[in-house]
Amino acid sequence: MSKFRELKEVAYRSNMRLPELDLVLFTFGNASVVDRDREVFAIKPSGVPYDEMSPDDIVIVDFDAKVVEGNMRPSSDTETHAVLYREWENIGGIVHTHSTYGTAWAQTQQDVPIMGTTHADHLTVDIPCTQPMSDEMIKGDYEEQTGYQIIEAFKDRGLSYEEVEMILVGNHAPFTWGKTAEKAVYNSAVLEEVAKMAYISLQIRPDAPRLKDTLIEKHWQRKHGDDAYYGQEN
What we know:
This protein has one domain (5-224): Class II aldolase/adducin N-terminal domain (L-fuculose-1-phosphate Aldolase), CATH 3.40.225.10. It is built from eight helices and seven strands. The protein has helices at 5-20, 78-87, 100-107, 117-120, 135-139, 142-157, 181-204, 213-224; strands at residues 30-35, 40-43, 59-62, 67-69, 93-96, 166-168, 174-178.
């Protein structure tokens, strides 16, 4: 039996949540989960339909994206995941999708503006979109460079990856992450829903205003602040 059995099970369940939430089509997208102590992560095999996949198909790779265990090739996005795990030590799971609304915003090279309280419940800023990748990066190790494209976007904007757990890669699609794989999946669903709401809002009213700062602060603080009161006490 695999010594990574539990890790594979978590990765499998995380990947299977993506079609359940209508975040992927066919073989699009992938989810991974990390084991920091063993410096490996588990990720979906490349090009395998979700309904044909089993936990045994999940591939274990190290932080250099080298296969440690598995009979299949890992996701083509494995090197992107590896960069993020190496650079951002406090994330436990990563999700990449080509969900419709999130990807549509990425294709326009625009941030998703913070327009309502649903967005503010999760972020105090727009969902960032990276600049298009340079020709030099595209001609290099493309998937690895995608990881650095994300890292650099956060540095340039002065954002914290622990506070903003999602991004649109310009002309590509969304990536999300979290302290756990479950949170990364949750963030992927939130990104898609907020992107959809923003799109519809701008169709109804093209000059719709951004959410005012007092409401952003209120909704963020009531869920995440020192005196948060959303939900039940532990």
